[in-house]
Design brief:
There is one protein chain. This protein has 420 residues and is α+β, with helices and mostly antiparallel strands. It has 3 domains: 2-162, 2-Layer Sandwich (Alpha-Beta Plaits); 166-227, 5' to 3' exonuclease, C-terminal subdomain (DNA polymerase, domain 1, Orthogonal Bundle); 245-391, Dna Ligase, domain 1 (2-Layer Sandwich). 38% of the residues lie in helices and 20% in strands. The chain has 13 helices and 13 strands. It has helices at 10-17, 42-46, 59-64, 74-89, 115-130, 142-154, 167-175, 187-195, 201-206, 209-227, 258-278, 317-331, 364-381, and strands spanning 2-7, 27-30, 37-40, 68-70, 95-99, 102-106, 134-139, 161-163, 244-255, 281-292, 303-314, 338-346, 349-350. The chain has a 5-stranded mixed sheet with strand order 5-6-1-7-8. Strands 9, 10, 11, 12 and 13 form a 5-stranded antiparallel sheet that branches. A 3-stranded mixed sheet has the order 3-2-4. A hairpin with a 2-residue loop joins β5 (95-99) and β6. α4 (74-89) packs across α5 (115-130) and α11 (258-278) packs antiparallel against α12 (317-331). It binds a DNA duplex (18 and 18 nucleotides) through residues 30-36, 38, 52-57, 59, 72, 98-102, 183-186, 188-189, 216-220, 242-250, 253, 293-295, 340, 342, 344, 399-400.
DNA sequence: TCTGGGGTCCTAGGACCC
DNA sequence: TCTGGGGTCCTAGGACCC
């Protein structure tokens, strides 16, 4: 059996913990650049605010209903996530941290006679230790645990825990789940399946295997079989190295000159380099891209990317920045209003297995010492204390974050003070 | 009349997730 | 005025090889 523990309205709940005046009030969290809604409290959901909605579309709704709106504060959410996961680890040694706000727990080898009660214990412990409300779904496969979690959230009479175990419980759960609500079935597949008369999870579980494989590939087939209670999706409790690393951002304001964009791209490349060094890998390929604002159809549109292969895989900020800026230069064209840029590194290899070339022109050991020093300083004194000059200082491109809450848990000078 | 066949590697694109 | 960011996996098709 697996449990899926999923935090309720995670970002909104994080904001609420440190600002109890927000309890019972509608709260929304915005994406980077204060663009779209990415988390809502139940009260905000009741107002009809949906995921992914551009904030400026619902300006009036927000004003009329006194909705509290926050920029996303990832330092805070990341820290709270860590606390939740630390609590969950106490319940089982095998845990798969699936995202910032959810984790699968495996109960393999553990005997629980009352899964409902066990789920309650997990739920109450997380709430007591962290203040974050969670729901727990328990079932024989990960896909069914997802469904169980959804039902736990929907059916309040179950007090946040829902168990799917017997054949008839599976059938009941599948009957009351729309195909579009199944984990692994996105909007494209849902529409396709609806066209073929498959509307519920139960319909899908009964669809012929060969047909499913033909049109939804082996991924869709795994999902189908998981719905019948056959585990097909591996439980991944080992943290694997990432295979691609990206840093991409929209600009706070439109950019038309190469100067600020070049600084932005240098900063993104530097961020990728840091992430590479953190997981001890080097990249063999770098992609840099820029594009205009696709929503402004009245503007001329332009989008390009450039892929560059390195002679020797690297995680040096200096090298990655150099390549990113060369790449940018080759795709930048004057006369467009640029909205977004990004750097993606791939072809990652462990840094211990980097093979050099005979004519390597880079002093790798010097780079390595410099990067180690840079990482140490930035770890000790805070992010980006030391920067590569080409990353710029005025930063006219930086994103908007107008409604940021304090870093209650990660910065001493922003810690919560209580007057007694 | 008949035009080799099978394997591997790589990439682009499309689907999905939170 | 204002529309996110960071990932994964699979498949099809082309290049290449023997």
């Amino acid at each position: 059996m697996y449990a899926l523990v999923d935090c309720n309205n995670f970002y909104a709940s994080c904001e609420r913990i440190f600002n109890p005046g927000l309890i019972g009030k509608p709260i929304c969290i915005l994406s980077n650049n204060d663009g779209v809604i990415i988390s809502r409290s139940d009260e905000a959901k009741d107002l009809g605010i949906t995921m992914g909605q551009p904030a400026f579309f619902i300006k009036e709704l927000i004003a009329d209903n006194n909705v509290y709106v926050f920029s996303s504060n990832y330092a805070l959410y990341g820290d709270m996530s860590q606390r939740v996961m630390d609590t969950l680890v106490q319940f089982t040694p095998t845990i798969e941290i699936y995202s910032i706000d959810e984790a699968f727990l495996s109960f393999k080898g553990l005997e629980y006679y009352d899964l409902q009660a066990h789920g309650q214990t997990i739920r109450e412990t997380v709430k007591r230790n962290t203040g974050i409300p969670v729901c727990v779904g328990i079932a024989p496969t990960k896909t069914l645990a997802k469904i169980a979690n959804r039902l736990a959230k929907k059916r309040m009479e179950n007090k946040g825990v829902f168990v799917i175990s017997t054949a008839s419980e599976i059938e009941d759960a599948l009957t009351s789940t729309n195909i579009s609500d199944v984990w692994g079935i996105g909007s494209q597949y849902a529409e396709f399946l609806n066209r073929h008369g498959i509307n519920t999870a139960l319909d899908y579980a009964k669809a012929p295997e060969a047909w499913v494989k033909k049109y939804l590939s082996v991924v869709g087939l795994r999902t189908r079989n998981e719905l019948s209670g056959i585990p097909c999706i591996a439980f991944e409790d080992q943290v694997e190295d990432k295979k691609n690393i990206a840093t991409t951002r929209s600009f706070g304001d439109i950019q038309t000159e190469i100067g600020p964009i070049s600084e932005a791209v240098a900063t993104f490349a530097g961020a990728c380099a840091e992430k590479l060094r953190k997981q001890h890998t080097c990249a063999s390929t770098l992609t840099v891209f820029i594009h205009t604002n696709q929503f402004r159809t009245q503007d001329k549109q332009y989008a390009r990317n450039r892929v560059m292969q390195f002679p020797v895989a690297t995680n040096s900020s200096l090298e990655l920045i150099k390549y990113a800026q060369i790449g940018l230069k080759s795709i930048f064209k004057k006369g467009y209003k640029y909205k977004k840029a990004g750097v993606i590194v791939s072809g990652l290899v462990p840094d211990s297995q980097v093979s050099g070339t005979l004519f390597d022109e880079v002093n790798r050991s010097a780079h390595k010492r410099l990067m180690t020093a840079l990482d140490e300083i930035n770890t000790t004194f805070g992010r980006e204390k030391v920067r590569v000059a080409s990353q710029g200082f005025d930063r006219s491109w930086k994103l908007r974050q107008e409604r940021l809450s304090p870093n209650y848990t990660t910065k001493w000078n922003e810690i919560l003070t209580i007057n007694v």
